[in-house]
């Protein structure tokens, strides 16, 4: 355990959102978000739909696992809550942590009705700051489907650079193997 991480922020503020660690009983709101975005998420986040998207109870179990993994410093999963409506509108996580480097991977999505409004840009910028300055990570990576141009533009806006392609790296629920594009962001290039 890294004792310096005992007092990190559990809520991050952006102009339009509060990005915060999940709390007990957030599963109902998380299920509603997953259900509303089911078609998109089945292709892009099938593991999430398998774990949390099947039932309300499954969503609550997932949320509580996220809380436990936060405390164990294994994954930092957060809900994105709208300042205007106080509803859960997105999800972001720093996962696949390798404390030997230290590095981590970012995963994220926002409600389909809020895409291309700049909300996820401000959320990711704030989460990157959190990862570098509070978690003290040296490197962040993002993997996107090779044809997910919106996500690729988003991570470039936040400061990530393309590092390469991963051939046949991801299997869609249909069984088709597809390529991923890998982006990286090193703390040494991060300018507050």
Structural description of this entry:
The structure is a single chain. With 192 residues, the chain is α+β, with helices and mostly antiparallel strands. The protein has a single domain (10-189), classed as Gcn5-related N-acetyltransferase (GNAT) (Aminopeptidase, 3-Layer(aba) Sandwich). Helices cover 34% and strands 32% of the residues. The chain has helices at residues 27-36, 38-44, 46-51, 56-71, 119-134, 149-158, and strands at 11-13, 17-21, 76-82, 88-98, 103-110, 139-145, 161-171, 177-186.
Topology:
Elements: E1 11-13, E2 17-21, H1 27-36, H2 38-44, H3 46-51, H4 56-71, E3 76-82, E4 88-98, E5 103-110, H5 119-134, E6 139-145, H6 149-158, E7 161-171, E8 177-186
Parallel strand pairs: 5-6
Antiparallel strand pairs: 1-2, 2-3, 3-4, 4-5, 6-8, 7-8
Helix pairs in contact: 1-4, 5-6
For the structure shown, list the relevant keywords.
34% helix, 192 residues, alpha+beta, Aminopeptidase, eight-stranded mixed beta sheet, globular
Kindly state the mean pLDDT as a whole number? 93
Assigned CATH superfamily = Gcn5-related N-acetyltransferase (GNAT)
Radius of gyration, taken over Cα atoms and rounded to an integer in Å:
16 Å
Order of secondary-structure elements: EEHHHHEEEHEHEE
Q: Main beta sheet, described?
A: 8 strands, mixed
Helix coverage percent: 25-40%
Compute the separation of the termini in Å.
27 Å
Please state the second-level CATH architecture: 3-Layer(aba) Sandwich
Number of E-type strands: 8
CATH domain class name: Alpha Beta
Give the strand order, joined by hyphens, for the main sheet: 1-2-3-4-5-6-8-7
Low-confidence stretches: none
| CATH topology tier name | Aminopeptidase
Give the count of helical stretches: 6
- Tell me the structural class: alpha+beta
* Beta-strand percent range: 25-35%
Shape category? globular
Give the tally of structural domains.
1
Family: Belongs to the acetyltransferase family. RimJ subfamily.
Domain N-acetyltransferase: 17-184
InterPro entries: Acyl_CoA_acyltransferase, GNAT_dom, N-acetyltransferase
Pfam families: Acetyltransf_3 (PF13302)
């Amino acid at each position: 355990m890294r004792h310096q991480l005992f007092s990190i922020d559990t809520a991050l503020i952006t102009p339009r959102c509060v990005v915060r660690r999940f709390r007990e009983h957030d599963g109902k709101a998380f299920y509603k978000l997953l259900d509303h975005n089911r078609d998109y998420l089945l292709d892009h986040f099938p593991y999430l739909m398998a774990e949390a998207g099947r039932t309300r109870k499954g969503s609550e179990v997932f949320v509580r696992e996220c809380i436990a993994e936060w405390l164990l410093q294994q994954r930092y999963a957060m809900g994105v809550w709208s300042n205007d409506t106080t509803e859960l509108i997105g999800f972001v996580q720093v996962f696949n942590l390798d404390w030997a480097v230290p590095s981590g991977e970012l995963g994220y999505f926002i409600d389909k009705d809020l895409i291309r409004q700049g909300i996820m840009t401000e959320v990711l910028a704030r989460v990157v700051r959190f990862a570098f300055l509070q978690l003290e990570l040296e490197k962040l990576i993002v993997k996107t489907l090779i044809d997910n141009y919106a996500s690729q533009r988003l991570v470039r806006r936040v400061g990530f650079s393309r590092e390469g392609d991963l051939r046949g790296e991801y299997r869609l629920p249909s069984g088709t193997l597809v390529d991923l594009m890998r982006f990286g962001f090193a703390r040494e290039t991060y300018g507050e």
